[in-house]
Q: What sequence folds into this?
């Protein structure tokens, strides 16, 4: 067969093959691949108002980013107040404010890195609650904190805080390095070969169910305000989302004109939060809510935390080593590593949920590897800066994407800027801390429900009538709910004689996503079942259109080069933001598990897909 040589150049992310020795087969194949990929992507994102690469108007971007900020800011506030007492800063407003600033500052940096170089999905990074339990266990092994009375000086109490935080930093650095190696080495993608819908379903579902107590706790402060918040969100996002509000705009072409804006579809969370906050303010100034701090409804008042706002400093800039040099102990490292494993399971579930809600294809191997690796890198930053806990994906923000139908990466990146500014302008953070708890609870109730339903929707890929599958899903969810509940109600239930082993087992057995996901993983890979019954092949199939368009669900014919190029174009959203043309010219990059050109550990240098990757000199030979 006569060899035909082509030269390749990249135009708008597409490698265009220019014929050198006659024939136009490759150009036609390229056009066909682009047409197929566009059809697949249009079907995936057909319900999105703004897709991954879209750039909403600046005013919409600011408000949409603010919605995400409101949703996750509660996590940034909660973690410092939970670990504060065991770190001996309970009641120390200055140190607590600095710790809060550090958490917000690093969450913004970690989110920006994740959306730009990591998984490349609109994933929000925030402090992980999985690391709270090992921190508490580590600190309980030490002597009690200095008393807050005259028996100890402020210098002694601050010195104890620095010592404890340095131990936490050392454990966090080592465990984050472990997470980074798991991601960048490709171990994560290897494990994904054995993970199907029956593993992902209980994992993602339990992410939502595990947040239910947090939503309930916030709502129970005042169920009336929480119900009002939920009602506004439901009306805006489900009943009047198609109604477009007339607005006045100006452009060079149309000058001053009236246009209709999908206000309720894009900003249901923001509208509900503002209206509920205004209602709480009115009920506060009219003294409908009691002004007695001992009353259960006192926390609904908008002035309940006014003293804390007044005492909070205006500016602070977190910096590496602000608490001193990290110290490392074996027991603390193993406990933190267990928390890192639980965080990885949670994040992988969030990646799939986010991709589904964002109208994006399932994350390919290199994106999963890079996402977990970047989370590990974010944990290293957390260890250097001293935020106390590593980062993880926030499920509540994933649910918000489904409500707003906005998956633009730009929105999340702008939100990360808010977090960085909040870390430096701490006074504003204190103001947002006055948002009444039932408003946060109402928002969580709706978004958590969305995440839970996304987990359940993965069952569409399996034979749901199969007794095998029903058993795996039901048992995994039940065990993932009951065992962590038992662990939370019976502290100290694990008594192996080794505090290190106790730490590890306590963290793992208390994490519902880990228990449910691991149970589903083991049962799905050990109980006999056909691939069709398990749904793995169907879940991973990205091709959904035929060449003639007569059957959109028909798999592409047996054309390896065409399939490879369609796959590359469909998954293009997971490419790095720059340098892809250079990366594709280097054949050795296909061996890197975190590189977009990664073709598996068993790939060969003579792969038939080399035509679509280009070569170092810009040419390829199709034989």
A:
């Amino acid at each position: 067969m006569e060899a035909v040589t082509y030269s390749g150049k990249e135009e708008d992310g597409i490698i265009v093959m220019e014929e050198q020795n006659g024939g136009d087969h490759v150009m036609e194949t390229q056009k066909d691949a682009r047409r197929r990929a566009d059809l697949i992507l249009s079907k995936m994102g057909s319900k999105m108002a703004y897709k991954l690469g879209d750039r909403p108007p600046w005013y919409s971007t600011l408000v949409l980013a603010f919605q995400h900020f409101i949703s996750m800011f509660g996590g940034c506030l909660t973690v410092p107040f939970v670990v504060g007492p065991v770190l001996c800063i309970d009641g120390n407003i200055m140190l607590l404010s600095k710790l809060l600033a550090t958490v917000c500052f690093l969450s913004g940096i970690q989110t920006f890195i994740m959306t730009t170089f990591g998984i490349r999905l609109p994933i929000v990074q925030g402090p992980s609650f999985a690391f709270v339990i090992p921190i508490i266990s580590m600190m309980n092994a030490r002597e009690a904190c200095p008393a807050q009375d005259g028996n100890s000086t402020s210098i002694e109490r601050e010195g104890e805080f620095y010592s404890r935080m340095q131990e936490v930093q050392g454990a966090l650095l080592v465990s984050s390095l472990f997470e980074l190696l798991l991601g960048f080495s490709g171990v994560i993608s290897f494990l994904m070969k054995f993970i199907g819908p029956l593993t992902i379903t209980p994992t993602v579902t339990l992410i939502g169910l595990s947040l239910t107590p947090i939503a309930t706790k916030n709502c129970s402060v005042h169920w009336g305000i929480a119900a009002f918040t939920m009602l506004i969100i439901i009306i805006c996002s489900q009943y009047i989302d198609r109604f477009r509000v007339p607005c006045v705009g100006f452009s060079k072409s149309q000058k001053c004109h009236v246009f209709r804006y999908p206000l309720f579809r894009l900003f249901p969370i923001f509208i509900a939060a503002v209206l509920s906050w205004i209602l709480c303010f009115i009920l506060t100034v009219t003294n409908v809510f009691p002004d007695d701090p001992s009353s259960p409804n006192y926390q609904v008042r908008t002035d309940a935390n006014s003293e804390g706002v007044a005492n909070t400093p205006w500016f602070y800039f977190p910096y590496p080593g602000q608490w001193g040099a990290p110290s490392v102990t074996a027991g603390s490292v193993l406990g933190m590593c267990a928390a890192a494993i639980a965080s990885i399971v949670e994040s992988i579930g969030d990646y799939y949920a986010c991709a589904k809600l964002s109208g994006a294809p399932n994350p390919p191997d290199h994106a999963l590897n890079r996402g977990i690796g970047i989370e590990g890198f974010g944990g290293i930053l957390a260890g250097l800066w001293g935020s106390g806990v590593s980062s993880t994906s926030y499920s509540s923000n994933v649910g918000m994407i489904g409500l707003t139908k906005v998956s633009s990466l730009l929105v999340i990146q702008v939100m990360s800027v808010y977090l960085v500014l909040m870390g430096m302008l701490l006074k504003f953070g204190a103001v947002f801390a006055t948002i009444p708890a039932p408003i946060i609870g109402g928002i969580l109730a709706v978004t958590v429900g969305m995440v839970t339903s996304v987990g359940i929707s993965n069952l569409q890929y399996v034979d749901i009538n199969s007794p095998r599958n029903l058993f795996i899903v039901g048992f995994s969810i039940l065990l993932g709910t009951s065992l962590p509940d038992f662990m939370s109600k019976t502290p100290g239930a694990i008594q192996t004689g080794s505090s290190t082993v106790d730490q590890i087992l306590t963290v793992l057995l208390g994490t519902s996503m880990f228990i449910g996901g691991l149970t589903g993983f083991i049962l799905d890979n050990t109980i006999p079942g056909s691939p069709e019954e398990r749904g793995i092949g169907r879940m991973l199939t990205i091709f959904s259109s035929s060449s003639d368009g007569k059957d959109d669900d028909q798999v592409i014919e047996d054309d390896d080069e065409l399939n490879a190029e369609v796959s590359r174009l469909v998954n293009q959203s997971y490419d790095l933001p720059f340098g892809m043309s250079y990366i594709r010219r280097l054949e050795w990059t296909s061996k890197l598990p975190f590189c977009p050109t990664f073709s598996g550990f068993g790939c060969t240098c003579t792969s038939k897909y080399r035509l679509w990757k280009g070569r170092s000199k810009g040419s390829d030979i199709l034989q």
Summary: Strands lie at 4-11, 14-19, 125-127, 245-251, 255-261, 391-393, 619-622.
